[in-house]
Amino acid sequence: MKTHSLVVASTLLVALGWQTSGWAATLASSMGIFTYPTQGQAPEQQSADDYQCFTFAKGQTGYDPMNPPQVVAQAPDQGPSGARLAGAARGAAGGAIIGEIADNDAGKGAAIGATLGAMRAGRADRRRRSQQAQQAEQAAQQQMSGMENTFKNAYGACIEAKGYSVKY
User: Fold this and answer.
1) Rounded to an integer, what distance in angstroms lies between the CA atom of residue 141 and that of residue 133?
2) pTM
3) Dihedral (CA of 94, 95, 99, 100) sign
4) Which long-range contacts does 20-28 make (Cβ < 8 Å, 24+ apart)?
5) 11 vs 78, higher pLDDT
6) Which of 83, 89, 78 is nearest to 130 (CA)?
7) Of 25, 103, 140, 160, whose CB is crowded by the most CB atoms within 10 A?
8) Cβ neighbour number for residue 44 with a 10 Å cutoff
9) pLDDT band at 150, cuts 50/70/90?
10) If DSSP codes are grouped into helix, strand and coil, which group holds residue 40?
């Protein structure tokens, strides 16, 4: 909504022939793309060129910065992984051996080992799932950033061809 209001206000300012801080407010400036007319284009011409290149970039990339797609990070599997059961089995085996050697009570050692093994495996499983969630979030952010950069490159190619200097 904020971007839409900026575009409406920018269009109104340009239509009235006003400029903001020495540059005409444009659709691209709402995305952090700044253009400067190197051939003395009037604000009205800059607005028209901006709109044409904005439309061109949308058509070439399929990305609309005024209505960006919702890129959702894929959540890690939340179902049972069997990690606790496997940890308990490993712990029970180790505990039984230690219990038998220490006080001739393999059952008691196995019970303690199973508990500790399950706890350790559960902690490792939570850590693994947390890392997977972070990686999925980073992948989603990279995907969004890639779409934005592709759009900016397409816009930049168009606006430079019309005689503007571009920075983003």
Assistant:
1) 12
2) 0.60
3) negative
4) 26/50, 27/51, 27/54, 27/66, 28/53, 28/54, 28/155, 28/159
5) 78
6) 78
7) 25
8) 12
9) very high
10) coil
